[in-house]
TrEMBL record:
Compartments reported by the entry: Nucleus
Broad class of the protein's primary localization: nucleus
Coiled-coil boundaries: 64-101
Name listed for the protein in its UniProt record: MADS-box domain-containing protein
Organism: Capsella rubella
């Protein structure tokens, strides 16, 4: 057998020959589709539109039924997806409302705790100041006692000294 020659595909100017070529090729495409559809578990669909805008279909099972079935499946999937998105949005809205409420309650509780801590810190600061003052006084008294014991002349002088040149 001689090898086939590859034909150049170009636009057919004559309308009548263009239509006859379309119908010839349509028949051969539909024959091939029919052969493929005989293979088990294979669905074949062909849609051809002629140069005169007429559509031709081939399908096993029927193309229109298959397209309709597929469109219905896609529509069901879209509806399920839309319902899922609606539920998610509703849940997120409820969560955000809950978070706003919880956040406000948490902030109020946090503010109260801060105020309690501030009051406690102030009380402790005052206690520390008082104990430091007492400690300083006790150290001063202790130092004076030690001084008095060390120097018998100043034994009776616990009051502050008045300078000699002090005038009232």
């Amino acid at each position: 057998m001689a090898p086939r020659q590859k034909r150049e595909i170009k636009f057919i100017e004559n309308e009548r020959s263009r239509l006859s070529t379309f119908h010839r090729r349509q028949c051969s495409i539909f024959e091939k589709a029919d052969e493929l559809s005989k293979i088990p578990d294979v669905e074949v669909r062909v849609l051809l539109v002629s140069p005169t805008n007429i559509s031709y279909t081939f399908g096993k099972p029927s193309l229109i039924n298959n397209v309709e079935r597929n469109l219905m499946k896609e529509l069901e999937q879209l509806e399920m997806h839309e319902e899922l998105l609606r539920k998610r949005n509703q849940e997120e809205l409820e969560k955000s409302k809950m978070l706003e409420k919880v956040e406000l309650e948490d902030l109020v509780a946090f503010k109260e705790k801060l105020e309690a801590l501030r009051a406690d810190r102030k009380r402790r600061h005052e206690e520390m100041k008082a104990s430091a003052t007492l400690l300083m006084l006790s150290e001063e008294t202790e130092n004076k006692k030690m001084k008095i014991e060390a120097d018998p002349r100043e034994k009776y002088e616990l009051r502050p000294r008045i300078p000699r040149n002090y005038v009232e």
